[in-house]
Write a structure and sequence with these properties.
CATH class: Mainly Alpha
Structural class: mainly alpha
CATH superfamily: Ribonucleotide Reductase, subunit A
Number of domains: 1
Strand content: under 5%
Shape: globular
CATH topology: Ribonucleotide Reductase, subunit A
CATH architecture: Orthogonal Bundle
Bound molecules: fe (ii) ion
Largest sheet: none
Amino acid sequence: MALKNRLAKLLIDPAFRNPGLLKFIFSIDTVTGIDLVKTLSPFKLMPASRSLFTRCFAHFVSGEEISLAASNGLAALAPDRAAHDYLLLQASEEATHLEHFRDKLLAFGLGEMELNRYLAPSFAAFGRAISGRVERGDYVAGIVGNNIVVEGLAICLLELGCGEMRANSDEISAFMDFVLEDERHHVRFGERMLKRLNERDALDHAAAEDFYGTMWDLVRKAIAEIPDVLDAMSLKPAQLEHDVKAYYDARLSAAGLSFAV
Ligand SMILES: [Fe+2]
Ligand SMILES: [Fe+2]
């Protein structure tokens, strides 16, 4: 089929799925500098892009909801005023991210209610695991679970797997950069918090290691549950698992922690 006809099919046929062609079209964009998708229909998602955006956004929206609830809960458990104030600031930033993601869903005509269908069960379990610990007053587990594991996973996905989403529009790209910068701050706060508690001997190493192990199991399961989503993001599950683990190890090492997981 000639490219022109295939492109026409991509644009008009909701059942058309051809990520390879999508990559090819975007690679043409890179070469020519012409944003074909935007030129043909500004801010209107093509069918294949709609599927990609919906499946990816389901996980980003869920991640923001988990982080919003966790940072609000953790603020009340913070060991000092500075940490309390930072966690409230973080909560407001998570609410802003959530509002922006919802705004994008609306702009692209995607329903928030349909997102749960696309969510990996183990990804949904992150929130339950963290809130269970936070409700019991376990500040360290909340920081490990949210500020290191969930936010670290979000950073890896935003850095490694959003090239094609960015290619859809400059606005999406700017939005990703804006969220990414905040998430990097949130992870750095978690890293510094754990380091401080560790240096003061105010951290139960075995308990933190145990909860990190629980979260890492969920991350591995979540990665295994969404091969199609990862494929749409051009991510290979085994490579992503390796990269995410390396990212966590670096953060924990910076905090002076070494977990046998
Ligand atoms: Fe966020
Ligand atoms: Fe965050």
